[in-house]
Amino acid sequence: MPGKKPHMSDQDRIVEVLRQFAGKPIAPSPEESLFESGLLDSFALADFVGGLEREFSIRVPDSDLTPRKFDTVARIEAYLQSRS
Question: Cβ(32)–Cβ(72) under 8 Å?
Fold first, then answer.
């Protein structure tokens, strides 16, 4: 069931969405570029953000769909905290 899982940190939840999206076990560090590492690209960004929207019960406006905002787990976490 999507939504807040009290035993998981926001970073863990972000990585879990990435794992589901990547379809393989991954463990990016909070500051690792998801684009430079090949986990994400500009084509995959919208689908990945859709997964974040479901997991965190938020809506990300199209104007925020930029690689810069979603480049690292730490940036994604900061963005999500700014939206709640």
Answer: yes
